[in-house]
Amino acid sequence: MKPQTGAGAAPDKNVGKGKNSGRGLVDSSADVAAVASLEEPTRRRIYDHVGAQEQPVSREDVAIALGVPRRTAAFHLDRLAELGLLSVSFARRTGRSGPGAGRPAKLYQRSVHEVAVSLPPRHYDLAGRLLADAVADAQLSGEPPRVVLDRRAHDVGRAIGAMGRQDQEQQGQDETGALMSLLGVHGFEPNLAGSAIVLHNCPFHALVQEHTELVCGMSLHLLEGVLEGLGLPGVSARLDPGASRCCVRVEISHPM
């Protein structure tokens, strides 16, 4: 299940940077709320109408176009903006400026921020960027695409882990808690089982079904990078394929 709105995606070099990098590739709770809000029929009509316009629209524009009270249009437009589905700007529609030109109108347009919800958690956007960038880099360098892919996956994982380590230090988490939290928010659904962490979900599940060796290798290098970025020398990742779970297993060689 993957309702989706909006467009645009940050390049993989930004994974591991910014406010959400150590807390998951997406803010799942906020995205669920945003998508769920579109179940309200009037709100969905308003969102679809705004998204179909080439230029930002005002509350009056929406009210007239859809035949709803201005107050209703304003309520739903502002709620959609709060949820990140619409962006807001202000401008005078008359083109006049200075005294007597009137107050700027509040205008709305569809946000470029992408909102996606999938259950179980999937991160095909990350896999797609890694694969596409690996092919592009391989064409320029002449290296085998698989070699480039594994290296890029490791680099991205290390950046994610480094941000997770900063969060760990700020929040005073122990190493095990920090690792479990980071794996959880990135969709791996970790479970501590003795000296190992079993990952009950694969964020790249559909791709693994068709390209098992390639994508499982990418996952392994991604998680090895995460462990390096977290600074956990006593923890390692290895391939351990199993039904209905991630093909990578995390092993703890000594208590963290």
Task: Please explain how this structure is put together.
This protein is α+β, with helices and mostly antiparallel strands. It folds into 2 domains: 89 residues, Winged helix-like DNA-binding domain superfamily/Winged helix DNA-binding domain (Arc Repressor Mutant, subunit A, Orthogonal Bundle), CATH 1.10.10.10; 130 residues, Muramoyl-pentapeptide Carboxypeptidase, domain 2 (2-Layer Sandwich), CATH 3.30.1380.20. Helix content is 48%, strand content 14%. It is built from 9 helices and 9 strands. Strands 6-7-9-8 form a 4-stranded antiparallel sheet. A hairpin with an 8-residue loop joins strand 8 and strand 9. Helix 6 runs parallel beside helix 9. The longest helix is centred in the middle third of the chain and has 27 residues. The chain is elongated and about 70 Å long. It starts with a strand and ends with a strand. The N terminus is likely disordered.
